[in-house]
Amino acid sequence: MSKSIEKFYITTPIYYVNAEPHIGHAYTTIVADVLARFYRQEIGSENVFFLTGTDEHGAKVAEMAAKLGKSPQEFTDQISGSFKEAWKNLDISHDYFIRTTDAKHKKIVIDILNKLKDKGVLYEADYQGLYCVGCEKFILESELVEGKCPDHNREPQKLKEKNWFFSLQQFLPKIKQAIELGELLVYPASRKNEVLGLIDKQSLPDFSISRSRKSVPWGIDLPWDKEQKTYVWVDALSNYITALDYPEGEKFKKFWPADAQFLGLEILKFHAVYWPAILLALDLPLPKLYIHGFFTIDGQKMSKTLGNVISPNALAEKYGAEVSKYLILSQFSFGAESDIKIENFAEKYNADLVNGLGNLLNRVTNMVEKYLDGKIDLQFVDKKLAQEEIRQLRFREALLTIWQVIQNSNTLIDQEKPWLLAKDEKNKGKLEELLKELVFDLYNIATGLKPFMPEKSAQIIAILTADKIKKPTEPIFPRLDLSD
Ligand SMILES: [Zn+2]
Predict the structure, then answer these.
(1) Domain ranges of the chain
(2) How many angstroms is it from 296 CA to the middle of ligand 1?
(3) 3-state class of 29 per DSSP?
(4) Which of 122, 163, 370, 459 is the most buried (most CB within 10 A)?
(5) pLDDT tens across 259-282, in order?
(6) Cα(129) to centroid of ligand 1, in Å?
(7) Is the pTM of this model over 0.85?
(8) CATH class of 343-464
């Protein structure tokens, strides 16, 4: 990404309302949040657009709502509300929250469908296959385990029906070329190769963009065939442009193509093949896709039955929004497959934030107050600590860079022992230089942390830039009792 960026459009996937928000959703959303905050600092808030939301149509939603004795709309209102609540608790700074049941979204999806039909890329044909309601997709015989969908442990239904199809085949060479030329960015390289492999294997048939209303009762009607509902993926993927008021909206003209679309591995094919094909059919430029790997929680796959599905609300309640984000992002490098060690969160909080940053702030401000009467003659310069890492989406590495400075400062204090220097008037100059250096580094630690911890960062900067520096009366990171 070059430094002459003028606008930045960031999206998370819209989350399917079949479950309450969990840490998997939170991870993607936090990553997007940090990047959005970073670019707002760089190019101004008005030039950044950060989108998230919920995906609310499909047979599974109708099925779950019926089970609970609710209408699909009541059910999706409830779960969509839970996502909004979770993002509020984690202090997520999205500019817009889209719901696929929004009237505006539905209206533009109909416009998109009509355009695709006019372009001649849709055709009607018989579809026959095995359909897993859990997955919301037809699945292959070869994917079944003992006759059941392995993800949902249920037998798929045999479906034969007339569907409208999107002629994906004709776009595959163009998608391949776009990926190779970097016009369609798929990051990291391992995922790019995976997509190229899918295209080369010719294992990507045309896909249907509709279902009969008998099999999928909850969705957007096809405008030219009311017996058919729009397939949930076409509806869902369109959100990235309907949210910008495609095709004539000012936001669309300003922000498309997306500069960072974050997604998990399980929806790679839809985003790196189907979505670009739809965009090419609409003659639109292609986005940049950033894919994160699967991760486990304390060494185990997340699952409801194991009871290790962590609610973002519980984390936010225990640690606060900003510390929760730190603890999650510091676990592993973006794009890697790894583990989130929640069982170590409390210990890591005490080590990194209470004993690391919090202690450094207390020590430095205490000494400036005591030895220099709170006055320090210092020109603050933002060294833009860790910014290059954030630009490259190396969030964990950015935090490591910042924590290295924290560690170096604490070591410097232990080595130089300012309390000994303070005993002799002739060391006054040296003491002053040392404290200046420490305050300067602390200031840069705080500015570097701004996209991750905006409030804590602002608190630290306010303390350091006050007329008179004082040790904070309350620690900004209170110690957690580990026996909890
Ligand atoms: Zn399934």
Answers:
(1) 343-464
(2) 20
(3) helix
(4) 163
(5) 999 999 999 999 999 999 999 999
(6) 14
(7) yes
(8) mainly alpha
